[in-house]
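Quick one, tokens below:
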């Protein structure tokens, strides 16, 4: 596998897509049930191939990622050849960006010396989608980019 197998819940949510995937291989429900019972290793391979196809599509469309921890916010803009980052660090230990209060604190203090802001960019060290997947494995989540664009707009003005 290139990425990781989808969870049971993800497979259930993508039931129709998985059925279509099997149909492209001329596998109907009866055939799939037979494969699962008689050739479980083949069924496992089909699940893995489908998972990789879904991940590939999701990662190819990924534009923004966010990763929140207690005192840091990592914002990423995933471009074709490189990834740009904005890292926000609260220098006051009681601040917790994992809650609504932490984001309000950030809004009130972004231009004070209690917040460090670091900008970065680098070319992908490996294939783009693999790099993005690694960030997701480390805890980043896909985002609509709203926070990245807001912070970037504030910094640029």
């Amino acid at each position: 596998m290139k990425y990781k197998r989808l969870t049971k819940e993800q497979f259930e949510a993508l039931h129709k897509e998985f059925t279509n995937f099997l149909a492209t291989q001329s596998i109907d429900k009866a055939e799939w049930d037979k494969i699962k019972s008689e050739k479980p290793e083949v069924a496992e391979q089909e699940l893995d191939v489908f998972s990789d196809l879904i991940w590939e599509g999701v990662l190819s469309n990924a534009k923004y990622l966010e990763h929140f921890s207690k005192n840091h916010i990592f914002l990423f803009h995933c471009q074709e050849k490189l990834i740009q980052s904005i890292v926000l660090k609260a220098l006051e230990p009681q601040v917790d960006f994992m809650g609504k209060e932490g984001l309000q604190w950030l809004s009130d203090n972004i231009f004070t010396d209690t917040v460090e802001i670091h900008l970065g960019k680098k070319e992908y060290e490996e294939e783009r989608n693999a790099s993005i997947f690694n960030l997701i494995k480390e805890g980043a989540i896909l985002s609509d980019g709203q926070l990245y664009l807001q912070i970037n707009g504030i910094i640029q003005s």
